[in-house]
Amino acid sequence: MNIGFDLDKVLISYPPFVPSRLVNRLYKSNNDKALTYRIPAYPEQLFRKATHLPFLRRPIVENLALLRRIPKEGNTFYLISSRYKFLEPETNRIIKKYRLDNIFDGLYFNFENKQPHLFKNEVIKKLKLDRYVDDDLSLLTFVAKHNGKTKFFWLNEENKYGELEKNVFAIPKLVDVFQ
Ligand SMILES: [Mg+2]
After folding, report:
1. What is the CA(168)–ligand 1 centre distance, in A?
2. From the CA of 77, how far away is ligand 1's center (Å)?
3. Can you point out the beta strands (E) in the chain?
4. What's the pLDDT tens digit per position in 101-120?
5. Domain limits for position 130
6. Number of domains comprising the chain
7. Which of 4, 10, 69, 124 could form a disulfide with 78 if both were Cys (CB 3.0 to 4.6 A apart)?
C-alpha cells in the first residue's frame, strides 16, 4: 500500500500547554465558507518560527516507533507536510534529528507556499495514495471529495466524531491506519 502521513500532530506534537484550537486559529482564516489557510506576514512568521523551536515540538515517540516497527514489505510510506517555506530550516532540522528520511520513502513539503489543502490534494493524486492520515478534519473533508478511491484517516485522540465523508475514518491511535 502507498500510505501518506502528515507531520504536525501526527508525528511531532504541538507546543505543550497551548490549546490546539489556538494553534489551529493561527493557521486557518475565519471564513467558514471556503477552506483557506493564511500565509502569515513577517512579524507573525517570527512568532511562528519561535513556536517551532525543537523543545516545543517534541516527537510523538509512540507513533515514530510504530512506523519504524511496521514491516516495509508491500508498503511505501510518504511524509506530506504543508509547512510553508519560512519554516524550511526548522523542518529540515526535525527531519535530521529524528531521522525521518530513514522511515519514509519520500518527503513532500509545501515550500512553494500553496494552500495546504490544494498542495496535499496534488501530492495525494500524484502518489496515488491508498491511505492518508492527518489531524486536520477540514483538510481531509476537502481531499476526500477529490480522491474517492483513497481511504482517509482522521487522527484525533479525543476520539471526536464530526460529520465525516464516506471515505474518512476517525481513529484514536495511529496503529488503526494499518487495520
Ligand atoms: Mg497536522
Report:
1. 16
2. 16
3. 2-5, 76-81, 106-109, 131-134, 151-155, 168-171
4. 999 999 999 999 999 999 99
5. 2-178
6. 1
7. 4
